[in-house]
Amino acid sequence: MIITFLIFWPLVVAAIIALIRGDRPDHIRQAALAGTIIEFVVSTYLLFAFKTGAGYQFTVRWLWSDTLGVGYQVGIDGISLFLVLLTTLLTAISVWASFGAIQERVKGYFIAFLVLETGMIGTFCATDLFLFYVCWELMLLPMYFLIGIWGGVNRIYATYKFVIYTITGSLFMLVAIIYTANIIHKIAGVWTFDLTVWMQYSIPTANQLWLFIAFALAFAIKVPMFPLHTWLPDAHVQAPTAGSVILAGVLLKMGTYGFLRFAIPLFPSAFLDALPVILVLAVIGIIYGALVAMVQKDIKSLVAYSSVSHLGFVMLGLCALNTVGFAGSLLQQINHGISTGALFLLVGIIYERQHTRLIADYGGLFKVVPVFSIYFMIVMLSSIGLPGTNGFVGEFLILLGAFRSHPVAAVLGTAGIVLAAGYMLWMYQRVFFGQVTNPKNENITDMTLRERAILVPLVIIIFAIGIYPKPILERIEPALNRVIDRVNAVQVVEKTKQDELLSTRNTYPPPAMETKSADPETEEEQPR
Amino acid sequence: MNLSLFSPQIVLGIGGTLLFLFEAFASERGRSFLPTLTLLILALSGVLMWKSYGEIGVLFSGMVVYDRFFVFFGTLVLLGSFLAVSFSRPSLQQQDAFRGEYYALVLFSVLGMTLLISAANMIIVFLGMEIMSLPLYIMAAMRRGSERSVEAGAKYFLMGAFASGFLLYGIALVYGATGTLSIEEIARVWPRGAGFSSLGVAGMLLIVIGLAFKIAAVPFHMWEPDAYEGAPTAVTAFFAAGPKIAGFAILLRLVSWAFSFSDPVILRIVWMLAALSMTVGNFLALTQSSVKRMLAYSGIAHAGYALVGLVVGGTVAIGLVGYYLLGYLLASVGAFAVIATLEKSQERSLSFADCAGKGKTNPGLTLVLTLFLISLAGIPPVAGFVAKFYIFEQALQHGFVWLVIIAAVNSIVSVYYYLRTPVYAFMKTGEETNPDIRISAGLVFTLVVAALGTIIVGISPEYFIKLASSSVMWFF
Amino acid sequence: MSVILGSFLVSEYAAVAVFLLVGTGIVLFTFGLAKVIRPSNPTPIKLETYECGETPYGTAEIQYNVRFYIYALLFVIFDVEAIFLFPWALVYRSLGLFAFVEMFIFIAMLVFGLFYAWKKGVLKWV
Which structural domain range is residue B444 located in? Predict the structure, then answer.
């Protein structure tokens, strides 16, 4: 029930806001903030009630259309738990952060934001592929309006690019989802889009590759992986600050989450086939993103390109195919949400004051706005991956995992860290150190109380994860191990050249007894 | 013979005749009641249609049939016409096209549609088609002063006559091959699973082509954009709601009842019609600058998507075509209603640039327009998406992978042009001169019903799909 | 050759083809014959359009008054009515009351149409 609340509560708040008169923007803002904070507080309950290692929890199952096996089925496991928490936290923060920046059409803005939250939570919690797709697309529309209406000068171009890229990927994914359901129907004899049912069977190897490609295309666009990343800088730079925060903090995670949740466990052998390509693209992404970030003149696009690099790390961790790499990858997703989200917030804060984001327009800010500079430095260091901050733990685990399976790629990936230190520090030096070169910057007010309040939780989390990541890691590990087991099962069999044996064994549903004995969590995965 | 089963058509016929007389003799004040009277007659016909739901009756010695199929598609047509008429008066007045005859013509055209849907004999197919089409030609040319409108009427008429020729020729050939005009008899003679004489196949092909004109499937679509754009917008809404659905209905009835799609040539041709309609419709829609014309081309594309269901065949897929058309009808009538309201000049139709800034001046209207366009684009969770999803599912289940891939690529393309209107409305600023946008009660009714319908049909699809598939059940 | 011809002749369309050929042939033959045997002596007056003895003026391509068309349409209505009434009258006895009601409805429809046309001023020649 709690997940159903989390999914629909933002819609309720949006409906309430729709009833508030448009000429009372303050009431609208307060209602939105209160709604998202309640959402966050409720979601923290998940953290305490979560039973480590126990498959999908808090499940709800309600069949929507029985002839086609489409249902409202939600649940949370170790993979999605922290992503949901990240979503609720970042949404509340973004809503608060947009109090100052959004002065026009306030009502529409917050409604769009709340609908977006519904879509995001739904995407992370859905265990039914149909529901997943619906929520996946549901995120598109509010984002489209957020960028298109409240965005920068070039927003319409950015909007189109964002929408067309996303739709292109997702429609192929839709075709693949239906096709997979069709295959499951042939094997199991029931029409269902239930992920837990799908996982009990294995898709014939011959079909896996193109299905994987269709899924991976959608996710790779969202991540974004190297050749498909071009929508990201445009969308980020044009989006309003809060939009960028959500885009970088949550929406990009949808891609990597999709790989972890759907593409890899459903099509393990295809993933193994495609692994070299993904690995190469991930490494290219790391280095290319870092190099391009280095030459950016605009702080926001610098941060945007750094996202490409960071998400390359996340993909590298997935390619490692061991617990350490996977854990690092998932942790890095959360870290990236926190750090990059905070960076966008900080860029937004300074942009609100000076209406420019060009590095060249700044210089010597440390003397003018010391508090802002210190916040910026902490967040930046976390983004670089300084030991003691969250970024370090994530990147370290990823590289550790990757060294075991793909040493060359790991070494190349390490170059990305060095480059990250380069572009971030260089930017920091040009913006904050030295003399105040631009006379306009002499009288900037420092961060207000509201702005500090927004950033304090993020900074606390940065250090908390950096110093003591164990609570997170131990909760996500069992879920990740299940994914890895699925892939390894294929790998082992392939190595021993027993492909035929596997396909005959897996084409038919394994006996229920065997499933239970092999996986004690199966009982938990069933709806209550 | 139970004449009460034919009462929906009788009501429409008498209503149409009486409205013509009323229009001629009534005062100016009396004429303002015409839309209300029309709505009453349409509603009465709908009530009578549902009164005997579940029964099956063959009337007039096998000429006309009353069955669930008739009720389902007849309801779609009546609903579409109802919505299109309900907002028509202010819109027609604004475009200087308010003539009392319009309402009588609507009733006659709907009479033709219901006759077409209930046809059990090829003669009635032709008769229904003509009764439906002739008023449409006049309606298209309703704005007598406008060259475009007259052009629309003339083009529609010529192409319609052409299509009638095809249809009649096809009926003649099928008669030659089977020796009967009764659809039931043809179904008995027509072999299931094997080919038929080339004469019969040629006849079937010609009939399919004749109907393809009516539903505007590529390459028989040329009339549609001009007719849609030239006609007064309220009339365009009626065009989108009525004839297309009636054309699809009779196509479904003929294909699934009379002809089994056993012959691979025919199957391949309808496959091509579907693929071409989707592709050509969508790509031409991309280049339009007028919203109305864009929707006209999108109508062609939607005919293509619905044809995918026809290609797949079977109770579920054919039923899904009905469901798809329901979603299309609600969204497109709603969209045309908004366009009719936003249009300001009489001669030039609404362009994208005209929409700029409307999101600020008319937030309500543009928001529902966005909802309709989202449904047409097939973005969840509204009706258009669910319909598309189910059609894709059926097609994949029966192995039409390429058709689905073509459809998916087309959906991607379509998102671009559907989102153009919201982009202009919400994201660009236009001049604030907005002389008089009148929101009549009828318009509110149309928009509310269409918007709620789009959402409800999308959120709880089960009931509507069952209704649609049960309507085609007995053909198989 | 003979096989093709043979199969052609037995087919039912042979009669149609023969009819077509003979029909065309007779027309061509008579016109050709007339051309051969008649004297040819054209004068300008002979080439003029015949118009009841009057000297023609203007071109033949003129716009007719639109009322002619409306009258033509009205004529068609009554024309069709007459065509339908004759067979009805012939079998009236055997059909009885049903036929009477049916024809009453039919004529009532036409009368309504006439009323409409009348009220709209179609019958006035201004």
Answer: 3-475
